[in-house]
């Protein structure tokens, strides 16, 4: 497809409530999302007499109906009906499209949630946040970084949208840790943890089958959102994200990569190189933008994150996109601050701005 990657199935993909056996004992299914990115890939792994599931989909009635159809087709026990068991539900990270139906599935299937501790804690925390706390903390954080207060208020006036997109995460979970090995379907799946997009994102690597379930950490066509959020305002998630690619050094370039979005592909090390280059270009764009923002090119101008968003995103952004754009811009600014290229401070007008050092 002209991007240096190999797509073994071409443009083929499963229809709604259908599956494709992408590798022996590994079934690929797609669930709908009501966003511009309109799907998530999920995985059903044969496990002895039963199945393991990786990721759940968003809390939608349509997604529930697709799951029920798949359970019938595979003869999976659910809701008191006899059939093959689901041995575990593995969730890669806390984002709603991945964990949204975990509570519903674990109840329906009488199975356990397997997830890293930090991702489970994040899901529980965000679900339990009050509407008022969610609105005020996010709106104030974005206003601090230069977004017009009335726009920030409107952006988060819906309160805790996370709770509307996920069923409550199970109170109990089985903890996954980096380096753990899960025996599933005759394969040994090693947990590789990625950071930055989510704090403790679990990927699954089966060296004996040459298959990597990469979640959102490594995607073939897009890059995952890397954002600074109000809950950890001094974080440097882009540094975390790029640094965690070292954890995948042992995955060969000919491995079959099963991402959460877009198409399965081969060329993981090639793709990691492309992602690193993508962020380097964006960092350079920001650096050049700070220099060009002063009339004499001296780099004396000070910009807030809201001022810098157009340097990274050269298109009109709606409310949903602006939230991610602000977070992503802050992640790149934090990286440049960590490198010593920029320095940030709170100005007398109460806006946090960055300037070249």
Q: What structural keywords apply?
A:
357 residues; alpha+beta; Metallo-beta-lactamase, Chain A; Arc Repressor Mutant, subunit A; 2 domains; seven-stranded mixed β-sheet; six-stranded mixed β-sheet; 11 helices; 16 strands
Give a structural overview.
The chain is globular and about 65 Å long. By secondary structure, the protein is α+β, with helices and mostly antiparallel strands. The protein has helices spanning 61-74, 96-99, 102-109, 117-128, 131-144, 149-155, 161-165, 237-244, 268-292, 305-312, 319-339; strands at 20-23, 26-32, 39-47, 50-54, 86-90, 113-116, 174-176, 181-184, 187-194, 201-206, 211-215, 256-259, 265-266, 302-303, 342-346, 352-356. The chain folds into two domains: 20-127 and 161-268, Metallo-beta-lactamase, Chain A; 277-356, Winged helix-like DNA-binding domain superfamily/Winged helix DNA-binding domain (Arc Repressor Mutant, subunit A), CATH 1.10.10. 35% of the residues lie in helices and 22% in strands. The chain has eleven helices and 16 strands. The model has no long low-confidence stretch (mean pLDDT 95). β3 and β4 (50-54) form a beta hairpin. The protein has a seven-stranded mixed beta sheet. A six-stranded mixed beta sheet has the order 8-9-10-11-12-13.
